[in-house]
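Record filed below.
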Amino acid sequence: MTYAAALDTDGIAATERLDERPDPVRAVIIGPASYDNMRRLSDLDLPEEDRNLIVTVHQYRPTTFTMQGETWLGTDTPFGDPLSWLGTTWQGSDEERSVLSGAFAGLAEWGRVHDRPIFVGEFGSSHNADPGSRARWASFNRQLAEELGFSWGYWSSRPGRRLFVLLTI
């Protein structure tokens, strides 16, 4: 069998032949299309018999906060020009937390229904966001992941501008 994850950006497609891997009992991390986009989980069709698959997703909600000022996205995004998002903060309000909690709850439900472990393989925010908002947002994402039993990895686009989150907060 062939299981494919298509990268639908720039017409690139990638296919991984999971049934021919040299060590079929070694775990493989695999995610949905569009760079492991959580919104594309429903498109991910995994073989029921292969229990050595860990599902990964990337979490960048809300995009106008996490990607503010990131010109590499272009100006024609579903949310507009990233330069127009500069100054967007994340205060951790009830509404902001509810949006993220809902996304993580949906992810947990998908994992439960499909009996798959979840790895939140990327979450992070642009260095253009203010440090306080970045810390609050990252801490809340970490908290949600851990409460739901997900492994996680924090991502930073700029090595010189990393955000280190105190994990005991």
